[in-house]
């Protein structure tokens, strides 16, 4: 039985250059498009705006260490570049709604999400992954809010004027650098004020605890897994998972295998099983409760296991959750009800 789901993170917007029509007609590449999404039950998702570094990364082999790998933080972005890039991708997001003939709606309120769950349209939650395109006076934050922005991850991996993210390192704790800057603290306060969710994924541990201290909203990591199972910097320690539970927050479990955030070996693992993804869901639910775990694919931002393939694999994951013993009510919480609860508390409308 197909049920609707809300997904915590995708990088699908960056797949489209100028024309977003291929999203609706269907693409052969990538993980999400309209036909495959609707078919799988993708009711709503966080659509990230991510600015790549203008230079290309060296080959991953250069990062090998004795026990795993270590990738240094990419250089900081210039505001002008990031701002222009952010505008370009947000404009694309606006086009998705405009060209959808009512099939795609920007999620500005909980009602937009409820309607998506009811099958009236697909809903997109606008998310910034790395706030380099936002100025220190936060004027751009207010402009983007009016355009539909409802979620901000202060950092991707590289440092910016707000905070510093984790470098990709395995095995390693997420405690890799300094916490939020004064600008970062103001950003969190202003997000609270506007009703924008703050995403903890990619933040280093000191930054995480700074947000936990300042924010009045539930703590959320949209695409991160359990560090106990896969000790990569991007995953959450037990203490972080507990804090998210205590705040009535939420973790979106990611399917990323490059970097591998799923299996214990940490290496690129296309053969990872769906049961190795659900293992993280069980671990988090056993520790802090079923109300605090959900899905956060990272589709179109990473490689996913062959068994998942693309968004069409999500119903298989949901079927596996049922097979592993979750009741229908519990499966619905993981699929979308937990996201609705947390966003209701955060957006306040
Ligand atoms: Zn990410």
TrEMBL record:
- GO molecular function terms noted in the UniProt entry: metallodipeptidase activity
From the UniProt record, give one GO term of the biological process aspect. proteolysis
**SUPFAM superfamilies for this protein:** Metallo-dependent hydrolases
Transmembrane annotation, as ranges: none
Q: Which CDD domains match?
A: rDP_like (cd01301)
The protein's superkingdom reads Bacteria
One matching Pfam family is Peptidase_M19
Q: Which InterPro entries match?
A: Dipep_AS, Metal_Hydrolase, Pept_M19
User: Could you identify this protein by its name?
Assistant: Membrane dipeptidase (Peptidase family M19)
- Give the species this sequence originates from: Halobacillus karajensis
